[in-house]
Specification:
α1 (19-28) runs antiparallel to α3. This protein has helices spanning 19-28, 42-48, 78-92; strands at 6-13, 35-39, 69-77, 101-108. The two termini are 12 Å apart. It has a single domain (10-108), classed as Alpha-Beta Plaits. It is an alpha+beta fold. Strands 2-3-1-4 form a four-stranded antiparallel beta sheet.
Length: 117
């Protein structure tokens, strides 16, 4: 029995204005079945807290108009991961730019309920 290697690709999209175009481009590339969660970064939550004043200087590095991010989760076959990464960066751009987003993968050692494993 052949074992399919899977990875969980996690992408936190800070620039939510790209979401619709990103989802359409991912679908065209054959990347489907993702989950989208509303999310907020820890720094933003800390800045919104009245109890923590010393972090006020961080405001200049954050987009004050952005309240939420979108976290996208995809369980992908190993061979589809690079395609997903390339597709995301083709829409969103350089993730090394401040406040653009983060992306990473983790190995998946068990799934149930996912089609075409």
């Amino acid at each position: 029995m052949e074992v399919t290697k899977l990875k969980l690709l996690i992408f936190v999209l800070n620039r939510v204005e790209y979401l619709e175009r990103l989802l359409s481009t991912l679908q065209t590339a054959g990347i489907r079945g993702g989950t989208i969660l509303n999310s907020t970064g820890m720094a933003r939550e800390l800045l919104d807290s009245e109890e923590i004043n010393f972090l006020g200087s961080l405001r200049q590095f954050l987009d004050p108009s952005r309240v939420q991010s979108k976290t996208l989760l995809f369980v992908l076959k190993d061979e589809m991961v690079q395609k997903a990464i390339d597709t995301i960066t083709s829409v969103v751009g350089d993730l090394t730019q401040p406040d653009s987003g983060i992306m990473f993968t983790v190995p998946v050692d068990f799934t149930k309920g996912i089609k075409n494993q």
